[in-house]
């Protein structure tokens, strides 16, 4: 489970006007991972920004697995094309794909790892599942909570995190990056156990 290349995709919309949106929290997590890997994103022909490097350290001190961080340069609802093209380019199978995305159905600051299952109305996931022809890839769900009052969820996800939310957001992004690192170093089951139960922390 810990050998071979991983493709880690952070979902969001392209452009500075969307960068701080709740919908772009997946890409924010990738920025944390890029900082840890000591690299920067470059443009790939598959309409993505990518960083190719090693993540984490294995027992004994060896560098962690090869990880391709990818931020699609397409809009969220058509993420599948770039993700499918990257998976083919790097010869990454769905079980080595980890998609980081915002999740309305989880309270803010909540993180959950899952594989397979439904997309919960998330258009980015629907596009990826359609392009790959499978739902059997890993997802890291980053909770953003439900909109207040009667606000349309579509409007809510395209709003920036409030100033009051940002200190907690910073912690959540680091914990999400920890979860990604745990998956690629130790495998999904151990990462789920640690994330969901606190065992091993």
TrEMBL record:
Keywords: Cytoplasm, Hydrolase, RNA-binding, tRNA-binding. Its EC number is 3.1.1.29. The record marks 13 as: Discriminates between blocked and unblocked aminoacyl-tRNA. Its main location: cytoplasm. The keyword RNA-binding applies. It is found in: Cytoplasm. It catalyses: an N-acyl-L-alpha-aminoacyl-tRNA + H2O = an N-acyl-L-amino acid + a tRNA + H(+). The record marks 102 as: Stabilizes the basic form of H active site to accept a proton. The active site is at residue 23. It is an enzyme of class 3 (hydrolase). GO terms for molecular function: peptidyl-tRNA hydrolase activity. Gene3D superfamilies: Peptidyl-tRNA hydrolase (3.40.50.1470). CDD domains: PTH. TRNA binds at residues 18, 75, 77, 123. Monomer. Belongs to the PTH family. PANTHER family: PEPTIDYL-TRNA HYDROLASE. Catalyzes the release of premature peptidyl moieties from peptidyl-tRNA molecules trapped in stalled 50S ribosomal subunits, and thus maintains levels of free tRNAs and 50S ribosomes. Hydrolyzes ribosome-free peptidyl-tRNAs (with 1 or more amino acids incorporated), which drop off the ribosome during protein synthesis, or as a result of ribosome stalling. This is Peptidyl-tRNA hydrolase. The gene is pth.
């Amino acid at each position: 489970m810990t050998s071979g290349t991983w493709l880690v995709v952070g979902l969001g919309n392209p452009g500075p006007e969307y960068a701080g949106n709740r919908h772009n929290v997946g890409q924010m997590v990738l920025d944390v991972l890029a900082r840890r890997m000591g690299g920067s994103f470059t443009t790939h022909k598959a309409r993505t920004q990518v960083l190719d490097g090693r993540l984490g350290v294995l027992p004994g001190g060896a560098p962690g697995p090869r990880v391709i961080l990818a931020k699609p340069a397409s809009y969220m609802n058509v993420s599948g094309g770039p993700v499918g093209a990257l998976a083919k380019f790097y010869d990454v199978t769905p079980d080595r794909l980890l998609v980081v995305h915002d999740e309305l159905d989880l309270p803010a600051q909540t993180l959950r790892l899952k594989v397979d299952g439904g997309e919960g109305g998330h258009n980015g996931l629907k596009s990826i599942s359609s392009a790959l022809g499978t739902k059997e890839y890993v997802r890291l769900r980053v909770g953003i909570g439900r909109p207040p009052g009667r606000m349309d969820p579509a409007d809510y996800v395209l709003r920036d995190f409030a100033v009051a939310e940002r200190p907690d957001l910073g912690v959540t992004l680091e914990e999400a990056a920890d979860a990604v690192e745990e998956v690629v170093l130790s495998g999904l089951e151990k990462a789920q156990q640690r994330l969901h139960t606190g065992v091993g922390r």
